[in-house]
Write a structure and sequence with these properties.
It is a single chain. With 448 residues, the protein is an all-alpha fold. Among the domains are: 155 residues, no CATH class; 155 residues, no CATH class. The protein contains 14 helices and no strands. Helix 1 runs parallel beside helix 5, helix 9 packs antiparallel against helix 10 and helix 9 packs antiparallel against helix 12.
Length: 448
């Protein structure tokens, strides 16, 4: 009895192995086309992504490969399970291959003994590894070639994204302002966040009417504030320059005007919506314009140079008519640097043009009235003639002369109309008039 149990165990193990081999072969039969299709699809997808500029590493493929494997195996199993065989069918195949004449089926049903195990067990099934491994090799080759095949990205993929010009200008302005230490990094980030809020919307809405209108409004606000800050810095520098270098030559009224301009410029910078560099604001706040001698010449020159450079940077972002700086050869205030004229304090009044002030315009016009009479000979009238007609053109006036119309003054009395000799024939005897439909309608309405 023990021998029969051992034999039964061995035959059933062989039957299970045979059933597994048959079922695995059917699964591979259904898996082959799906595996080839997955390889081709993966190749096309990876090549397309790389051509669009995407960077794909082998490690990025593992989640996709795992998901694709689960899907293909599931579909293959559902398609192949109808051809799967059971252990009993495997016993029938084994006894047919070994010519046991239904001995295994009879023993399995308990109607006979299990036969002895042959020295060489063969179920007649052998794997063709070239056919089994072929689809896997093709799929792997497709994926590897898609990863490492050198390709040139499409022009559309490498094309730079075009943004509204206002965003690019504001980005450049903010970067320049931060580099020149005109605004703080925090202020730059706050202004940049406003631009990024427009940039974060859908790309197809970047050039919509609402987006462009909002971009232009934001740009105008930033440009206006930069221009205001730039003018305040220029006014502060001019006032300091005048007080430092020409304070001894100015009247008390002119000095008071400069002090007022400096105070207004400082207050304007403090009230600016842009957060300016705290170091610069601290240096300006510590200056007493009435007592500039307490500071060294080097400190004042350095501060003025910093204000001048920062102001010119701002003027480049908001171009306009600047007043210039004292002694730079530009603007209207260089006459003061040369010591010419006064500042409207009543000194040196005469018949010469005034120089004006830093904030009061250029004075009178260069043309002045004089008691001396200039004789340019304009009371003589001379005729101009040109007898050369070789270069005359159409419309050229050749000559002018006085003349009158020739009028026929013969008196013409009323005369009797002559009699017609030919009365006409047929329709010619009746006067006919061609009228439009609108005119006919009017006549019918009036003459009923």
């Amino acid at each position: 009895m023990k021998d029969q149990a051992t034999l039964s165990s061995h035959w059933h193990l062989l039957a299970r192995r045979t059933a597994w081999k048959v079922n695995a072969a059917w699964l591979m039969e259904k898996l082959t086309p799906l595996l080839l299709g997955a390889g081709v699809f993966g190749f096309a997808g990876i090549i397309w992504l790389r051509s669009r500029g995407a960077t794909i590493q082998p490690t990025h493929l593992w989640p996709w490969l795992l998901g694709a494997a689960v899907i293909t195996l599931t579909v293959s199993y559902l398609l192949a399970r109808r051809q799967f065989i059971s252990k009993n069918a495997a016993l029938v195949r084994i006894e047919s291959q070994l010519h046991l004449h239904n001995a295994l089926t009879v023993a399995h049903l308990g109607r006979g003994d299990w036969p002895e195990m042959p020295s060489k067990l063969e179920d007649g099934l052998t794997w063709r590894w070239s056919r089994v491994s072929g689809p896997f090799a093709v799929c792997s080759a497709c994926l590897l070639s898609a990863l490492y095949l050198p390709i040139t990205p499409d022009a559309e993929a490498v094309m730079l994204t075009v943004e509204p010009q206002a965003w690019q200008q504001m980005d450049q302005w903010l970067k320049k302002l931060e580099e020149e230490k005109i605004i703080t990094p925090e202020e730059k980030d706050q202004q940049q966040a406003k631009i990024d809020a427009l940039r974060d919307q859908a790309q197809e809405k970047w050039f919509s009417h609402e987006s462009l209108n909002a971009s232009d409004t934001l740009k105008e606000q930033l440009q206006r504030e930069i221009g205001k800050t730039s003018r305040d810095m220029a006014n502060a520098e001019r006032a300091l320059n005048a007080l430092q270098n020409y304070g001894d030559k100015l009247s008390e009224q002119a000095k008071d005007q400069l002090l007022k301009e400096f105070s207004e410029a400082l207050e304007g910078m403090k009230s600016s919506t842009l957060e300016l560099d705290p170091k610069l604001m601290q240096e300006l706040s510590q200056i007493d314009p009435k007592n500039l001698k307490s500071l060294s010449q080097e400190q004042l020159n350095q501060l003025r140079e910093s204000l001048k450079n920062k102001s010119k940077t701002g003027e480049g972002m908001s171009p306009g008519q600047g007043k210039g700086f004292l002694g730079d050869g530009e603007g209207e205030d260089d006459l003061l640097a040369e010591g010419q004229g006064g500042r409207g304090d009543g000194e040196g009044e005469g018949d010469q043009p005034g120089n004006g002030g830093i904030s009061r315009g250029p004075g009178t016009a260069p043309l002045t009235l004089s008691k001396e009479e200039n004789d340019f000979g304009t009371d003589k009238i001379e005729g101009v003639t040109n007898e050369d007609m070789s270069r005359a053109q159409l419309g050229t006036t050749l000559s002018l002369q006085d003349g009158k119309h020739e009028v026929d003054k013969t008196t013409v009395a009323p005369t009797a109309a002559g009699s017609t000799k030919n009365q006409g024939q047929g329709g010619q005897q009746v006067w006919r008039e061609s009228l439009t439909p609108e005119e006919k309608a009017v006549l019918k309405r009036v003459f009923k």
